[in-house]
TrEMBL record:
BP-aspect Gene Ontology terms: proteolysis
Region (Disordered) residue spans: 30-93
Protein name per its UniProtKB record: Concanavalin A-like lectin/glucanase domain-containing protein
One example GO MF annotation: glutamic-type endopeptidase activity
InterPro entries: ConA-like_dom_sf, Peptidase_G1, Peptidase_G1_sf
List of catalytic residues: E261
Gene3D superfamilies: Peptidase G1
């Protein structure tokens, strides 16, 4: 099915070596800026164009200790295997994920202090954090109503990119975006304001069988310690962004995903960006709902052997770069990802 155009988009108030990628130094005369003098930095929200044996050995499919392959994606995902059909419910084996939710506090970012990419004060570092349906892993054997569907090959997601550019004195404004990958490029929300320390909530939904479009809602609640409403319990967003698609290609709708990813810069699509030294990222309020009424939150998401963990590994940048684990329990539980450099 041919993807349609977007229907609505609204919002309210370096050098390289043969071994690894160094932080990319931008030519200052080619960078456009907005009225606040923030550069228009963007990540390419897709894998590096060279994924096997990148020229010069930047990433190799069998690089690392014990031939460990590279992985540019950390975080967690919940694989959903629909139950078998029964005489009373003959179609429940066709159940699919309908929506995924999650919150994250935008972290601060700096240049790494250890590892091969550390200390380039004239370079740029970045990281991307997103919540979505599919797009996390291709390692599970999924039984879906779509034969031979690979959940890694497409996804509906929303996230925030963070950047650090030494030539501008450090941290830049976060960029909040959404994407139906790979049918559409990532789209930013108009006039959506966000800063490090703000709490964002992402809600990503798709149509029946993953192929009739979908929607995304992003809410910014400001700092977590800000007032939560009149009764102290209800969160009041200070900014909201929404996006609706129609007649999009199908998704597997088999994974709920909460991810940190090392995407390439648009200016260098062949390589992952140098991953910044971000403060801890915590995914909270994690939830997954299915079309036939399944609703997974709290321990149903974080429970033992259900949630699958991912970590970023790139030998060229120093080995393991981000590791994640569950923290807390019940509705207050979540997944915390930390920046590391472990050979």
């Amino acid at each position: 099915m041919k993807p349609s155009t977007l229907l609505t988009l609204t919002a309210t108030a370096a050098s390289t070596t043969s071994a690894f990628t160094l932080p990319f130094k931008f030519r200052r005369d080619t960078v456009s800026t907005d009225a606040s003098n923030n550069p228009n930095r963007r990540l390419l929200h897709s894998p590096p164009t060279n994924t096997v044996g990148i020229a010069g050995g930047h990433i190799k499919a069998t690089s690392g200790i014990n031939n460990r392959p590279p992985s540019l994606r950390a975080g967690a995902y919940l694989p959903y295997h629909p139950p078998a059909s029964t005489p009373d419910q003959p179609t429940q084996n066709q159940d699919m994920i309908q929506s995924v939710t999650g919150t994250v506090v935008i972290p601060s970012i700096n240049m790494p202090v250890s590892g091969p990419t550390a200390g380039n004060s004239a370079g740029e570092y970045s990281a991307s954090i997103w919540v979505g349906i599919d797009g996390a892993s291709a390692t599970d054997n999924f039984i879906t109503s779509i034969p031979n569907c690979n959940p890694l090959s497409q996804s509906l997601r929303a996230g925030v990119d963070i950047f650090w550019d030494g030539t501008l004195g450090g941290q830049q404004t976060p960029y909040v975006w959404t994407q139906w990958y790979p049918a559409e490029h990532a789209k930013g929300f108009l006039d959506f304001k966000a800063s490090p320390g703000d709490e964002l909530r992402f809600t990503v939904s798709t149509g029946p069988h993953g192929n009739s479009g979908g929607s995304v809602m992003v809410e910014n609640f400001g700092p977590p310690q800000s007032p939560k409403g009149v009764d102290g319990k209800v969160k009041i967003p200070i900014a909201t962004g929404s996006l609706i698609w129609k007649d999009m290609p199908g998704l597997c709708s088999a994974q709920g995903s909460w991810i940190i990813e090392d995407f390439p810069l648009q200016e260098r699509p062949e390589l992952p960006s140098a991953l910044g030294n971000f403060t801890d990222v915590r995914f909270g309020e994690m939830g997954v709902a299915t079309w036939l009424g399944g609703n997974f939150t709290g321990e149903e998401v974080l429970g033992k052997d259900k949630l699958k963990m991912l970590e970023i590994y790139d030998q060229g940048q120093g080995g393991t770069l981000a590791k994640c684990k569950t923290e807390g329990g019940g509705e207050k539980g979540g997944v915390v990802c930390r920046r590391v450099v472990e050979a």
